Amino acid sequence: MPADPDCIFCKILAGELPSTIVDEDERTVSFMDINPGTRGHALVIPREHAKDLLEISPEDLAACSQAAQRLARKASENLGATGVNLVNSCGAAAWQTVFHFHMHVIPRYENDPLQLPWIPKPGDPDEIKAAGEDLKR
Ligand code: AMP
Ligand code: ZN
User: Fold this and answer.
1) Could you say which ligand is closest to the alpha carbon of residue 10?
2) CA gap 42, 32 in Å, rounded
């Protein structure tokens, strides 16, 4: 039985939906994303359902990060990736579409088609400082 019957990733964990699992440990499972951004794109999830970055336990977050590092190494060693992006979307505003925490591990290759989702340009220094102060509060 999935922990959350409405959650597709809980269904993957319960074996009720197919997946290509590539890494597992006590706290995490990693499997291939069915809409890969690049070759080898995988997702790391905690076994325990948590909807997002704000809800996941620090222990599970640490375990997911370690699993992501293992996959990043494999992407380099086995797939010939020359870079890796770790992506987490927290909340619909941040493009999260599946509400079971997951970390995308996206191998990167020279001249692959991915692009930065924002255009870097200098911000107003006072506003940057003010935002930093607000964050620190
Ligand atoms: P996000 O938009 O950050 O919430 O990412 C959700 C990801 O889950 C997307 O990249 C989807 O392609 C992926 N996804 C959705 N359903 C499945 C599935 N059944 N198996 C593997 N990946 C999936
Ligand atoms: Zn879930």
Assistant:
1) 2
2) 4
What pTM value is reported for the model? Answer: 0.96
**Helices of type H across 33-116:** 58-79
Our answer on whether the CB atom of 94 is closer than 6 Å to any ligand 1 atom is no
Cβ atoms of residues 71 and 61 within 8 Å: no
Pick the CATH number of 8-136 from 3.40.525.10, 1.20.1250.20, 3.30.428.10, 3.40.50.1000: 3.30.428.10
| Segments of the chain scoring below 70 in pLDDT | 1
pLDDT number for residue 1: 65
17 Cα to the center of ligand 1, angstroms: 13
The ranges assigned to domains in the chain are 8-136
The residue type at 76:
S
100 is a catalytic site residue:
no
Written as six digits, the tokens of 126 are 């006072």
Q: Report H helices in 54-97.
A: 58-79
- Distance set, CA 131 to CA 89, 122, 125, 128, 135 (Å): 21, 14, 10, 5, 6
